[in-house]
């Protein structure tokens, strides 16, 4: 493949021309070009936070390509893309569960169960993984135990309480176990196209400390509305809680680029820089926060503590 030249900067991101170019490709759905550009950032950008963002977006781009292959039932090619994705971000549970479903189609049951267990080890309350553990048990082990686990998945993620899930339960009660299994395997979370609904669901996960679920939700909301400064701030906070400070810094930067008077985002940017030992950058961020809100107590306190 020929080298892709950086795209013209249309949105004024202005921090890294190659990253901005890759992000534009990603937003336009040209995931192969996005991957090529993001990989340049991964191999050459001196900024750790930019490399970490590029890593996440590269994994996400591979995931998008894999989903396209799944729609065409090209399981092996989809699995190839997902292998690339999980090498970059092994903790992205949505990619793990897509692998689980592909392994099911390929008849690779041990690999299927591995992905379920891996996802549940990361987050025992991840509803989609709970659902598929129930489906696995229903199909291969114990139908009643499996059904109970399937029902439990709805308690973890109410979006799974779909018409298809209820159809599966009804078919089970009629003794049509094959029909029930087929219905259960078609259950997917009801995803809203309105980013505000996605954000509300992510907010609920964050409130309960379910950071992986919250991170996934905010990431999906950003795909729907990439220029919402408040969503960037929320995503950054969750990344910060998960220990991914570099990616959090990138999200806080995005928030203040979209809203240059966003005091709270400047404060979080300063805190993240301070935690990373970037004291000059932290000082600049806290001063920017005090420019927009001179009485901000957190910014004043944090700034006073910097040597």
Question: How much strand content do the residues show?
Answer: under 5%
Mean pLDDT: 87
Task: Tell me the distance between the termini.
Answer: 50 Å
CATH architecture tag of the largest domain:
Alpha Horseshoe
Name the helix and strand elements from N-terminus to C-terminus, one letter apiece.
HHHHHHHHHHHHHHHHH
Number of helices: 17
Q: How many β strands by DSSP?
A: 0
Biggest sheet features? none
Helix share bin: over 70%
Low confidence ranges: 1-14
Structural class of the secondary elements?
mainly alpha
Offer a concise description of the structure.
The chain is 75% helix and 0% strand. The chain is an all-alpha fold and 307 residues long.
Could you explain the architecture of this structure?
The structure is a single chain. The chain is mainly alpha-helical. The protein has 17 helices and no strands. It has helices spanning 17-28, 31-44, 48-71, 75-88, 93-106, 109-122, 127-140, 143-156, 163-173, 177-185, 195-207, 211-224, 229-241, 245-258, 263-276, 279-292, 297-305. The longest helix is centred in the first third of the chain and has 24 residues, at 48-71. The model is unreliable at 1-14 (pLDDT under 50).
């Amino acid at each position: 493949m020929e080298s892709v030249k950086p795209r013209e900067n249309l949105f004024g991101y202005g921090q890294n021309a190659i990253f901005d170019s890759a992000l534009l490709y990603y937003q336009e759905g040209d995931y192969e070009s996005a991957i090529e550009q993001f990989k340049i950032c991964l191999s050459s950008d001196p900024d750790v936070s930019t490399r970490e963002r590029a890593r996440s977006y590269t994994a996400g781009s591979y995931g998008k390509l894999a989903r396209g292959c799944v729609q065409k039932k090209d399981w092996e090619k989809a699995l190839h893309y997902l292998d690339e994705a999980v090498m970059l971000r092994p903790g992205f549970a949505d990619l793990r569960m897509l692998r689980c479903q592909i392994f099911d189609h390929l008849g690779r049951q041990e690999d299927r169960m591995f992905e379920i267990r891996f996802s549940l080890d990361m987050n025992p309350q991840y509803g989609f993984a709970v659902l598929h553990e129930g489906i696995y048990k229903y199909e291969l082990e114990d139908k009643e135990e499996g059904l109970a686990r399937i029902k439990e998945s709805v308690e973890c993620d109410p979006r799974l309480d779909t018409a298809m899930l209820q159809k599966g339960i009804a078919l089970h009660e009629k003794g049509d176990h094959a029909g029930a299994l087929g219905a259960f395997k078609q259950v997917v979370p009801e995803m809203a196209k309105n980013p505000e609904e996605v954000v509300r669901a992510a907010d609920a996960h964050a409130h309960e400390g379910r950071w992986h679920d919250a991170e996934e939700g905010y990431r999906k909301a950003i795909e729907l509305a990439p220029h919402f400064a408040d969503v960037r701030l929320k995503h950054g906070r969750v990344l910060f809680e998960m220990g991914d400070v570099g990616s959090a810094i990138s999200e806080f930067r995005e928030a203040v680029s979209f809203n240059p008077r966003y005091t709270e985002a400047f404060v979080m940017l300063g805190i993240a820089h301070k935690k990373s030992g970037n004291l000059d950058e932290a000082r600049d961020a806290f001063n920017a926060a005090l420019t927009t809100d001179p009485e901000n107590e957190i910014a004043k306190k944090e700034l006073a503590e910097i040597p």
